[in-house]
Specification:
Blueprint: H1 2-14, E1 31-41, H2 43-48, E2 52-61, E3 67-76, E4 87-101, E5 107-121, E6 130-143, E7 148-159, E8 162-174, E9 179-187, E10 192-202
Antiparallel strand pairs: 1-2, 1-10, 2-3, 3-4, 4-5, 5-6, 6-7, 7-8, 8-9, 9-10
Length: 203
């Protein structure tokens, strides 16, 4: 399913039906993402949680050239080993920067660092794990056309006395100067595999 979403976005962009920002290859770093996400827990969390689904949101703000402020929130609602529904909250706050490459600026590299908070909210007072940690995320964005973007990132997190390593990929299709649709996936063998789709509002 997730691969079909990526293929659909690419085909729609290259077909020429989407014409927004056709002559603008520089990336926008002021946006709000909102979408749906399916999560399959891996490693130790996979022993406690079944597959879940929920919200994926992100805000990126660049108050001046090359400076970034970032906030991200994910809510997944799996079941625990007893079949009871729970809520897993994943929050990140980051600061960083970005560097466009070349005259066209169709490629840019960025980096973020900041705190990460994870909490599993259950009905069992003896099992309600929560912890603060640190995340670091370097990544890049590539505008295939003025409408269609591919992006990828590596994320390192130190939390729950464990080091987590995740890979992130995504595709974004701009259908107007301020609105886009995207598909994304995140793979972390120690925490979860997730994929989803959503909308991006830029300014």
């Amino acid at each position: 399913m997730k691969f079909k979403l990526f293929a659909l976005l690419a085909a729609f962009s290259l077909s020429g039906f989407a014409t927004a920002r056709a002559d603008d290859l520089a990336h926008r770093y002021n946006y709000f993402d909102f979408g749906w996400e399916r999560t399959s827990f891996q490693g130790d969390p996979g022993d406690y949680f079944a597959n879940g689904h929920g919200l994926a949101t992100e805000v990126m703000v660049s108050p001046r050239d090359n400076l970034l402020f970032h906030a991200e929130y994910h809510l997944s609602r799996p079941e625990d080993a007893t079949g009871e529904g729970i809520a897993v909250h994943d929050v990140r706050f980051g600061v960083g920067g970005y560097v466009p490459i070349g005259k066209s600026k169709r490629i840019s590299f960025y980096g973020l660092v900041g705190p990460r908070y994870l909490k599993a909210e259950t009905d069992d007072p003896e099992f309600d794990p929560a912890d603060w940690g640190l995340f670091v995320e370097p990544g890049f964005r590539f505008n295939v056309t003025g409408n269609f973007e591919l992006y990828a990132a590596y994320e390192f997190s130190a939390i729950y006395d464990t080091n987590f390593h995740a890979g992130k990929i995504g595709a974004l299709l701009n259908i107007s100067p301020t609105l886009g649709i995207e598909a994304f996936a995140r793979l972390d063998e120690e925490w979860s595999h997730s994929y989803g789709a959503g909308v991006r509002v830029g300014w």
